[in-house]
Amino acid sequence: MRIKTLTLAVWAALNVGGLGAASAWAATPAQPGSAISADGGTLQVKLEKVKLANGFEVILVEDHRLPLVAFNLWVHAGPRNEAKGQTGFAHLFEHLMFAGTRHIPRGQADQIIDAAGGTDSNGSTDFDRTNYFFTLPSNQLELGLWLKSDMLGYMIDEVDSVALANQQDVVRNERRQSVENRPYGIVEEALFHALYPEDHPYYASVIGSHADIQSIRLDDVKAFARKYYRPNNATLVLAGDFNPAEARKLVEKYFGPLKAGDAVPPVQVPQPKITEEKRIAVTDRIELSRLNIAWQTPAVFQPGDAELDVASHVLGGGKSSRLYKTLVYDKQLAQSVSVQQYSLSLGSVFGIEVVARPGKSLEEIEKLVDDAVADLAQNPPTPEEMGRARAAIETGLLTRLEKLQGLADQINYYNQQAGDPNYIAKDLGRYQAMTGAQVRDAVAQQLKKQARVVVYATPGEQKLAAEVPTPPMPTKAGKGERESLNADAAWRKTQPKGSKAKPLTLPDGHRFTLSNGLTVIHVGNPGLPLASATLVVRAGQSANPQDKPGLASFTAAMLEQGTQSRSAQQIADEAGSLGATLASSSSRDEARVEVSSLKRNFAQSLALLADVTQNPAFAETEVTRLKGVRLAALAQQREQAPAVAALVGNRVVYGDGHPLAENGLGTEAAIQATDPTQLRQFWQTHYRPDEAALVVAGDMSEADLKPLAEKLFGGWVKPASAAPTLAAAAPKPVAARVVLVDKPNSPQTALAVVAPGPKAGVPQAADIKVMNAAMGGLFTSRINTQLREVKGYTYGVYSGFSMNRDSGSFGVRGSVRTDVTGPALSDMFKEIEGMRAKPMGPAELNRVRNAQLLALPGLFDTNRVVASSYASEWALGQPLDSITSLPRKYNAVTAASALQAARTYVDPAGLIVVAVGDQAKVLPQLQSWGRQPLEIRDVNGALLPAAAPVAPAAPAAPAAPASAPTKP
């Protein structure tokens, strides 16, 4: 994946199938413009599947909820199709698909998508498939088909040794970032090595090994394309606002001429059997130990798959699950619990993952896990547990279908894994017909002790394979490196023009106020029977007393830990029964409580939100329990180099004594000193109706919301005292310098290049965002293009502005290969200086401005995002039209105004460089780079004794540049 490789936990969460009881859908008619309906209580998606003469499949889903079309292309090949010794090949090929085509020069496809207002543009690789996706405004249907067809049919024409070497560097950086420099990354890899023999397709991680990635040759790439990247081995789902007849003609035009390949034989691999428990120990650079237990289980949609899906919810599906209650809540042995049935075509994996609290025994945790599994193998889940599991699965599926890209991907998933794109009703049937006894029997049959792998991950030395050198990148392709699979056609060289665009409209909030002063913002969205709410108060980190860092986030976290009438577990159980997601959190300027659910359960879900907001108990036992959670979270932050860079960056940007300079969690001393009285006092001061806003977005009218809001929040008493005045604390930033934090043996350096920035609401906000998109905000930005696509130093580096209510900051963040830390910083600063040197040209300005402007509908495409966005704008003190006025503001940005924004708000001379990496290798590079002063700090940002100077050395030699497309 160009942004990340999906882990077991993430992919299982994305692809769990199924719904709840049939009666849940009995009253769900087709919504206006939606392809989704529930005739007779059976969930259906109106779709049409077409197969071209060359075997290419297209599935058309006409859905007019938004003026968007989701393009979702699945190639039915993944690691299950890799040859021995070529682990990571399918994923590397995914990267190469973006390296250019015969008719679209390298790097330009992403720029074209930006200029058209595309969103969700990416690709990903899983064991069974590789997918490529983006969402475009509906007037760009033909453009999207042109892009996708050229990627599939003509990408191999442009792949050469230069493109291959560049993407090998990028993928190896991705492995360093997502596996080797991420806590537990090597643990997950070791787990799959133990589950499967070396000759099984699921043995290696999706991303592969350094040795195998580097060993891949151009001939291998061509052979893989000839075999798998053919129209008869791919399926495209179009979901959104289009005319099916027009779409069919265009699909035939663009995909019909592509030449079919030989039929791809099905992968036949016997499911290996574990007959004796395997136990392995892994040491990693981690603070908290972790237990993993995993079994091989039935393949997707086979008998037992759905039952184990439900079992995963019963055992570890959130705060209402058995293992969470035992390990996290009652005995306080664990920091987190996660259980998943990871459903795959050659056999699935049932995994239990428990992160231990500091000093807690993995042996004790394992014993309790064993007891829970054994109990479920003997006794069926209770009716309440079955109901919660069904509700969670039901809400999760419908929430995925809310987003057009999620709808398209789910249909492609069903098409490949079940052989039926409209398998939703049958998938639903698995859960409708299931009994608790069947869940019990599946657990008894599949989750046996002798058939499992147990991994103990503990703090210690990280043991990696021998270093594989990164060879110099070739500067030009050799003769005869390119070949074609499909005949050329002159008309393909012309980029299609979009049809007339529909008026750009955004979700429009309507405001009313209750008698107690509570602001209520309603944003109607009748697309699907879902609704989301956010209750927000201006009680974030900036409101913390100077001597009590972390108090705001501690208070917000306590809201879910019990009220005057509900215990913490009763809150979790009730949310689970409703299929609702309830969460409280705190950020820089705000604290919020959020809830999302099906429409039919929304009134009850909102009542739960109202109770936790207005009636928190702040019980002593719960405060003590949460202290342990927060202290462990501090330890977890120390494991993550990017998190350390961000924390130290905040300290140097805002200066000691400023609330935003502190860790949002607080310090160990502050956490230990927190008591119920302090928490209640903070809540009483800041959580009051006249200083709060409730935002509701979804399938609910304003007429229905008003009495519900009055009923649930009208009794919230406005205090007699005046609202607190949040004085704008003046930042006292550290002057420009370089700060190094040692992370010994780290394969990457995490960078945070930071400075103070503008606060929210500055008149130049649109100019700043457009300028930043060009500099470092987009995948196609100048900084990311140079450091990733040209030099191969990184998996990704991005810049952005954080505009707070009373202050702000600017930062460029990302991780680079350790040995090129100095050259990467040098290149980064050159790009920043170039942004300030002269105005953007018309083409670049048009592209990056459209990437902000035309993409707006795709950025507000779910209820949760809409509610969250309006809540944030209110907390920042912005006017109600701050979202709907964005088109006008972006339209007004010019090259001159963007240049002025760069010169005003980004000063290279004032930037502070924070680098978290291996001091022995990074320090000489920083000293040679020459930026002064240079400080050594610890993971909390405290100054350490100065490093001894080293003898002057020649700057580290950058890798040879690749033949890259001309940068905008």
TrEMBL record:
GO annotation terms (biological process): proteolysis
Signal sequence annotation: 1-26
InterPro entries: Metalloenz_LuxS/M16, MPP/UQCRC_Complex, Pept_M16_N, Peptidase_M16_C
Domain Peptidase M16 N-terminal: 58-197, 525-640
Name of the protein in question: Zinc protease
Top-tier EC class: hydrolase
EC assignment: 3.4.24.-
Keyword Zinc-finger: no
Single Gene Ontology MF annotation: peptidase activity
Domain Peptidase M16 C-terminal: 216-392, 677-851
Keywords per UniProt: Hydrolase, Protease, Signal
Gene3D superfamilies: Metalloenzyme, LuxS/M16 peptidase-like
